[in-house]
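Ticket #4471: structure export looks truncated?
Reporter: QA, pipeline team
Priority: medium

Steps to reproduce: submit the single chain below to the structure queue and open the exported record.
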Amino acid sequence: MLALPPGLDPDLLRSFVLIAEGGSFTRAAQAVGRTQSAVSMQIRRLEEALGQPLLLRGARGVEPTPHGQWLLERARRILALNDEIVASFRQPEVAGQVRLGSPDDYALGWLPGILSRYAASHPAVQVEVTCAPSNELVDRLAAGELDLTLLSEGNEPPGGRVRWLWRGPLHWVGIEEVARRRPLPMTLARGGCSWRRAAIEALEEAGMPWRMAYTSASLSGCLAVALAGLAVTVAMPVPLPDGVKRLGEDEGLPKLPDFAIGLLRGPGTPVAEALARHIEESFRTGEALEAA
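Actual output as written to the record:
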């Protein structure tokens, strides 16, 4: 009989993923409830099993080697499947509360499906969702008020290790007749929003006259103004209410840049790490985008 190849211990992979994503042996040790030396030993065992170095200490902390980067993507998938299998056969052992931040722009489009699937595999976990602009969510995470948050590209903190989940186009949204007015009436988020900056820069570079007609702290507020025929706004490809549509060059509007959705984590807890992996897997497989 042929000898079976040795298996990989999920505990070793979990420690590796936490270190590779967080850039720190200390934070990973805290997340898994082990000493730093024990976690270092786990990584040595994993490297010996695979025969390749997986992590290197660099100027920005601990970073995966090329072999480590290759393993990281696959280790995430293995752990997500491992956790799903365990949760399906056991009574829920992971319990507690996890505080998730999300821009209002994504809450209705992508969160419902993600949260319902997470609740099915972690019924003893209470998820508290806070909706606010990305820059406010980043500040709340830094203050310890959130465990993890989704955010729009352009709001990531300096040196922050953001896991980028998806990249796609930013769109003008409104009514055709309104989009042809000059100066173009705009409704955007208040200062600090990266979408606001992108829209204004696009209009200025195109030499298009515009005016700020309304501001809102949320996408729903901007869409309400656009639906009333008072201004044009911007949004990513999320479900739109009847009465408005995506606009573009046919209406004389300049091209907008692509933007990304990211996931930023605070110090790890078991329930927060499980939710983070679930969110990443939902975007990787396209389940989150199908919901939108």
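Status: closed, not a bug. The export was complete when the record was re-opened. Leaving a note from the reviewer for reference: The chain is about 45% helix and 25% strand.
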